[in-house]
Amino acid sequence: MGNNKKRKEKNHKKKKRKATGEQTLALRYVHEWVFRDSLPAFPAGDASDDFAPQSSHKIVDPIVFELHCHSNHSDGFLSPSAVVERAQRNGVKVLALTDHDTMAGIPEATETAQKYGMRIIPGVEISAIYSPRHEPGAGDLVHILAYYGSSGPSRPEDLDNLLLNIRDGRYLRAKNMLLKLNKLKVPIKWEHVTKIAGDGVAPGRVHIARALVEAGHVENLREAFNRYLYDGGPAYAMGNEPFAEEVVQLICHTGGIAALAHPWALKNPVTVIRSLKAAGLHAMEVYRSDGKAAGFGELADTYKLIKLGGSDYHGRGGHDESELGTVRLPLASGYQFLKMARPIWCNAMKDILQSFAKDPSDANIEKITRFGIPKKSKVCHTVSCGKDIVDLCLSSWLTSDEKEENEFQAIRLMLADTVIGNGVVKVFG
């Protein structure tokens, strides 16, 4: 009897591992994109058995997405390269570096990721404020995650101008915070804060908190925030944050995916989510390292938003920080994210390449290559033909069918005899 019971339990577990048709479709779609450079096509046999088609990558292993993390280009402690290397050790296959109000770390992350076959999604976490004056939630600080294709936003100057204005406001904001701290008899020198932030990095609250720790005013970062720097705290100040609705619209306008970060931190999340959905919001964070945030999965369903999540890793250390890759995105969420994002990214890429085809200038080359061009070959080389840039740009980001779309073929023809002005385009590898 005991052996029969164990045999039944074993058979039951085997049945549970059988994928549905929908799961198999999602698995194929995600797997094809993540492992495009190194994976042959799925075998013709039944891929649903135990999620395990025969290939160089084990489908039984989950594909780990990390869609929210920071480097020392904003308020993180590690360089973009170190973030990528740590993520690789943790099994991450797809990483979005989402520094606050800057994409300056993306090229370094992209170049490092080439060594590991990791997908980098160019991202940014944009600081904003919820604007309606007479509704609950007015004045709420909102963070919007933007995710772009390999060439970034289709109108980069629009996004760059927005981010530059926010970063300029961070300098003024930090100075106002120091003035408030000085009035509280907690003196901090401006030079101390900017040294901690690093060259070219707009100072934020974390940098001021670190200065408070180093000056001996508090014991740790948590105390700095709890005593002085929390939202509305005695040393808190606002910057040049744009309206959240306008940020979402800009992300959509520039070929990105807009996702609401950590909605559980909002005072009135329902009001904010409803307004941002009307502005074009695609997704919201629901999953955390401790599981799904209570109630927010239902909110995402109500407003038909894709459920995402990430560690929000900063590299501070300590038991209270989620490690890279610890927020395991369900297969269905990864599939829905890519299913929505890829056509949008594809259209943005068309816009960028069409601009280049019409005007193969250095400025338009920069739009294509600002985050680097992944390639399969390990031999570093240069290209001088516009058509070559198109092929390199598409090689590791689009499916074979997407590459053969009429618009891309037309761009190739336009650039077939184009020679790039003064020279060369660097290709990472």
UniProtKB/TrEMBL annotation:
Database matches in SUPFAM superfamilies = PHP domain-like
Which one Pfam family would you cite for this protein?
PHP
Region annotation Disordered: where it falls in the sequence: 1-21
Q: Name one GO molecular function term.
A: 5'-3' RNA exonuclease activity
Occurrences of domain Polymerase/histidinol phosphatase N-terminal (ranges):
65-130
Show the ranges annotated as biased composition (Basic residues): 1-18
What this protein is called in its record is: PHP domain
